[in-house]
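Sequence, please.
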């Protein structure tokens, strides 16, 4: 009888551990989307807010490919939980010259045991860097959803139509439309345009507000420029970086959500992202980059 009780206790404890770890991974997954993607957004703080979305590409070229390692921390334990890749290619959209950006985040095999993570984000922008189309396909455990956004422009007004489609479980699609005199960006098009602006005149502590389409809604975001710092990536290289804070406000108090470290050169690539969570923290480190338009002059030491 005692043996059975001990065996039952071990099974119960194991089940509880698996459930707890699974919950942690699920929470990390939900945060990681914002964590990595908002990191790519941070560069928008170096550009002026304007109704006109047209700009000149000064930073990237077709064929650029960037890789990141994703880590999660819980109770003093750091664990690699996945990879992310960002690719840029020249293409056409509705028979017009365009660029296509793809961002793929994939959990490790160990992470898949608890919670499967497969997120694919795609956006099209014109050769003048105007947002045209955004799509996010998210496979989170057993759930599979697709968020989309279509952008249009008329007399200085930007309009975005958004839709979430539920594939598993099957539900009625969610749709919304939003217009603004400012340019509206999605999670990837903001990166494309922002990388072309020069932040040399930016003042430490300066705050920026901007609208961002997520595929389900348009949200006002707040970013703060913090200055410069030397940061080591996962390729044994230290980079001189611009530092930005992604913050939110609750009950009048400012809370740091994410800290971004962006290469202080013409490429303006995210080198490291730190996210502060209620149940731990997470980081993304630059692992490799190829096809970049300019030399990485922000390198301090290798």
């Amino acid at each position: 009888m005692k043996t059975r009780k001990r065996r039952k206790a071990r099974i119960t404890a194991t089940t509880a551990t698996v459930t707890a770890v699974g919950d942690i991974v699920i929470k990390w997954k939900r945060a990681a989307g914002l964590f990595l993607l908002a990191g790519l957004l941070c560069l928008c703080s170096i550009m002026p807010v304007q109704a006109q979305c047209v700009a000149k590409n000064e930073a990237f070229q077709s064929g650029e490919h960037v890789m990141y390692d994703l880590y999660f921390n819980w109770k003093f334990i750091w664990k690699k939980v996945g990879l992310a890749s960002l690719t840029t290619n020249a293409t056409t959209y509705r028979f017009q010259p365009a660029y296509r950006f793809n961002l793929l985040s994939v959990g490790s095999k160990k992470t898949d045991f608890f919670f499967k993570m497969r997120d694919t984000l795609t956006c099209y922008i014109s050769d003048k860097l105007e947002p045209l189309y955004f799509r996010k396909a998210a496979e989170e455990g057993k759930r599979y959803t697709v968020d989309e956004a279509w952008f249009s422009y008329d007399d200085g007004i930007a309009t975005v139509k958004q839709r979430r489609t539920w594939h598993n479980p099957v539900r009625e699609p969610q749709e919304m439309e939003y217009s603004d005199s400012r340019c509206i960006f999605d999670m990837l098009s903001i990166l494309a345009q922002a990388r072309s602006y020069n932040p040399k005149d930016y003042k430490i502590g300066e705050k920026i507000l901007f609208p961002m389409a997520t595929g389900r809604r348009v949200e006002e975001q707040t970013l703060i420029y913090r200055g410069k710092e030397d940061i080591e990536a996962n390729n044994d290289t230290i980079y001189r970086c611009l530092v930005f804070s992604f913050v939110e406000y609750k009950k009048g108090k400012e809370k740091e959500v994410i800290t971004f470290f962006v290469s202080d050169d013409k490429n303006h690539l995210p080198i490291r992202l730190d996210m502060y969570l209620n149940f731990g923290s997470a980081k993304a480190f630059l692992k490799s980059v190829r096809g970049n338009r300019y030399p990485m002059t922000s390198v301090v030491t290798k």
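Residues 2-32, 41-51 have pLDDT under 50 and may be disordered.
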